[in-house]
Amino acid sequence: MLESTIAGMRRVVRLSLAVAVVSASWLAATTASAQFVDVDLVCTDPNSVFTNFADEGKWADFSDVSNCNKICKSFVNKCKAFSKNWHACTKKAIGDDAELERKAFCDPLTDKEDKKACKTEVKEEEQADKDDAKSDREELLGLCEEIEPDCVSVCTTPIT
Questions:
Q1: Is residue 129 part of a domain?
Q2: Helix (H) / strand (E) containing 102
Q3: pLDDT tens digit string along 45-91?
Q4: Residue 58 DSSP SS3
Q5: Which domain holds residue 122?
């Protein structure tokens, strides 16, 4: 059951990431801008955050220690912390990318209306990407919460 629960959670994360990638790819294809900051490279793939903490092989390493359930709780807290750190990094990278896009594509424009339209497009793109990242963070935090019962279930010592 534990393996199927973890596999199901991983599928949800992968699906949401696939949707985000497809959405981002479509958005990028509809604009004349380039990505100067590769968010996934700079901030890591959020799926790796979750899979690191949802690895039952790691749980087995401490399943027989007396404070196993406390370690599981700590795993949840660390998972949440890394998810929040991923989100902060991602927001910063998105903002930096948008700033570079404005400088590269909008600032050189001489027509005021074109420049304004360009900056508006970059700003809307930036906001959409940040909204997606916020949604991904909320999903990751929820998945982190779901780890604890599965982790505690491998503990062989009584819950204290």
A1: yes
A2: none
A3: 777 766 777 777 666 677 777 888 888 888 889 889 988 999 999 99
A4: helix
A5: 2-152
